[in-house]
Amino acid sequence: MSRRTKEILAKMTLDDKIYHLEQITTATYLTKGSTYKVITGPNSKLKLDKEMIYDIGTSLNLVGAETMIDALTNYLDKSKSKRPPVFMQDVIHGHRTLYPINLAVAASFDRELARELASMAAKEASLDGVGVTFAPMVDLVRDPRWGRVMESSGEDPYMNSEMAKATVRGFQGDMGKYNLAACVKHFAAYGAAEAGRDYNTVDVSERTLREYYLPAYKAAVDAGVKMLMAAFNIVDGVPCVGNKHLMKDILRDEWGFDGVVISDYGAVEEMIVHGACEDKKEAALRAIEAECDIEMMSSCYAEHLRALIDEGKVTEEQIDKSVLRILDLKESLGILDNPYRSVNVEESKRVQLSPEHRALARKGAEQSAVLLKNDGVLPFSKNVSSVALIGPLASTGKIHGSWHCGGRAEETVSVYEGLSKLLGDRVKYAPGCYVEYNSEDESLFDEAVELAKSSECVVLCLGEHQDYSGEANCRADIELPEIQYKLLDKILEVNKNVAVALFTGRPLAISRLHNTAPAILNMWMPGTEGGNACANLLFGNAVPSGKITMTFPRALGQCPIYYNHYTTGRPKLLKDDLNRVLYTSSYIDVPNSPLYPFGYGLSYTTFEYSDMSLSAAVMKSDEKIVASAKIKNTGGHKGKEAVQLYIRDVKGSCVRPVKELKGFEKIELDVGEEATVSFEITEPMLRYWNQKLEHVSEKGEFEVFIGKDSTCVPFAKFELI
């Protein structure tokens, strides 16, 4: 804590301090009218002193430089202290220029790309006056029914950790005027909601919590993240925002995090609904004891902290610690010297949606897309005589993704616009059907079928509406709508040269699509430049290189499904996967294996792995082993390959997963080019949390895998001695 912030604290009254711990919406301070609407939860009826709200420490949901100037000018004019607030916003996958959803960015297997994209978003948001972004979201997810999988990096703790570090570095940089303070969320295990239903119960052992769910938060903390958000859910029966073991024992004491902790939207008061607190007074007590510094959109602190101090249940020193953390955040952002910080109306207009930013967003979309299937259809020739563009997602800008912040559908390049820019009037469009999930309207079929019949090739844009994923958008059925399958069948009757461009915010259970469509290019929700990226990929100006970081199930009943599972005592062997085998851990109506495994993704070229080797067969704890493989581009296109390293601990005092991702490197090879990729294996990489909650490695045998996805087989073993 700096001398300056301590001096500011010394001049604050107790009421000043308490109100500094509250957060309300920026709309409260606007004088010029606003189209603002609450998008992140119930609009709570806050019991706040109307004068004191101009000394509240932070504000959320800000979009636009002019909006920020209006709100801040009004705030400072009416504030007694003249202490500026920090404006915070959900800058999740871009600000005005949107890049692909986070699940897609992880599919790029490119740390530097993730950093670049976050840095771009930070610049745009900072010019609009945003100081903190509620990102990255690093919740590990295993159930695609959960709507917020689109915000995550998927099902693997190593991948989540790597993307967490890259994103924090991108947002925060050197904390200059074009950077944001990052807020890692949602601590902890929010992605483990039962049945994939948002806000639902989380019930995991502490060993599982530490082994799988905590590593990415810890990685963000180690990367210097300035802020952390407590989750809505319970952990071990206690709501996170009031969970002292989680928030104080682990986060503060064990990890040494001394940044700002904020509740999620209304989560402090929701402890009453959980059944953990009798009333708002007890909720305030539980949250402040857990060292939650900011209460977002409920007023338990404002209403009850003074009384709790008077009763001796809370000390003013506890309040001071939280206020100092917030003041230090403000100092690191520079707003104590300049409340308006980097806001600049004219520069914002110049930078946002600039050609440079659009080019980076397009690069992100091209490298995140995953080619799921290709029976020799793609890439289409750019010399094609005619293209039928069909589908409910073919001519809309609403493919930029949920959590689109300041992004706008009308500024997003649709697939129709992208293909028309590339191929001109050779592209003709027919919608084919409507995107609504329950639509049964086949009235648009005939036009689409006639267009397909008269065209050389067909691009069929299928998928889910972008608002079917994101917060509170969970699905019990993750198949495509029946109307889309009917449309596909009709098109294939008249033209077999069909590629499906799939738009989705989550893995889908699309076995039927896989069995029917000649080619499937998963574009996810690709952001502002989605249409241009899709056109480039379909017609060979770009080569797909993305690989999924969340397993696609064959059927919904397999969920949750993930690659790094345990074997069980009665495993069904892979060689028997398509057959029914009694008394094994299996289904009678579907194989155990997924439709598409973790790490899977095709290319327009092929890569051959050879000469896999280990530098030694024995390793001491203070030594390292190098695992290597040669990768050669054996196809006809220059392309990128995400080379993946997996390790299996063959036997442990606690059972270990069948394999675990421990490294990856993305390389680019020209036709015929070969490269050697090497990974260092060290003892810390072999550690896990045992039954005594000790983070240890155990002597014994380990298997090593290098390959193109999580189905790769071991090529060598070594012994840790």
What characteristic shape results from the CA principal axes?
A: globular
Q: How many β-strand runs?
A: 26
How are the strands of the biggest sheet laid out side by side? 9-6-5-4-3-2-1-10
Helix content: 25-40%
Q: What is the makeup of the main sheet? A: 8 strands, parallel
CATH 2nd-level architecture of the largest domain: Alpha-Beta Barrel
How many domain modules? Answer: 3
Portion in beta strands: 15-25%
Radius of gyration from the alpha-carbon trace, in angstroms = 26 Å
Per CATH, the superfamily of the largest domain is Glycoside hydrolase, family 3, N-terminal domain
Number of helices: 20
Structural class from helices and strands?
alpha/beta
Provide a descriptive summary of the structure in words:
Residues 34-44 have low confidence and may be disordered. Helix content is 29%, strand content 18%. It is built from 20 helices and 26 strands. By secondary structure, it is α/β, with parallel strands linked by helices. It folds into three domains: 13-33 and 50-347, TIM Barrel (Alpha-Beta Barrel), CATH 3.20.20; 357-538, Rossmann fold, CATH 3.40.50; 607-720, Immunoglobulins (Immunoglobulin-like). It has an eight-stranded parallel beta sheet with strand order 9-6-5-4-3-2-1-10. α5 packs antiparallel against α15 and α11 packs across α12 (300-310). The two termini are 45 Å apart.
